[in-house]
Request: fold
Amino acid sequence: MLDATVRERLAAEVERLRAHARDVAWVARDNLHLNLKFLGGVEADRLARIETALASAAAVSQPFELEIHELGAFPTPARARVLWAGVGAGGQAAAGLAARIDAALAPLGFPPEARAFTPHVTLGRVRAPRASPALAEALRAGVLGRQRVTAASLMRSDLSPRGARYTQLARLTLDGA
Reply:
């Protein structure tokens, strides 16, 4: 979970970007997060095993410093589909944690990610992508926030017409053992 200061700074960037990007489904301030693994729909009877597997991955992971340091877009800033805030310092540690999570969940039937992990915080999804030089110009680099990461969360996402609602199912402490 991102701390309140980092989320507030990212929310301010979202407000600044609104003037440059129309037809974007923006992520609400309280929903901003760094996603390490998306599981999709999961049956309730599998949650205990998932939590145990995630706890084992967290237990061997060291706490780390995370720096959010730039804004960008997938696939490119000129033709954005997803607007994001990138990770500088701590990116390798986040990628290592994501890899340990992949390995811990593979025996439970969750295939490892085929693409390389790119740590980022999704800010918004463009509903109708098109060339937008103004948006590309509005994306900028610079430190947007720093925090110490000492835990990860297993979250449930419930989608609605007003956006996602997240519920923390488990908090997993990074013990570094």
Observations:
- The longest strand covers residues 64-76.
- The mean pLDDT is 88.
- The first helix runs from residue 4 to 18.
- Strands lie at 24-26, 64-76, 79-87, 120-126, 141-149, 151-160, 163-173.
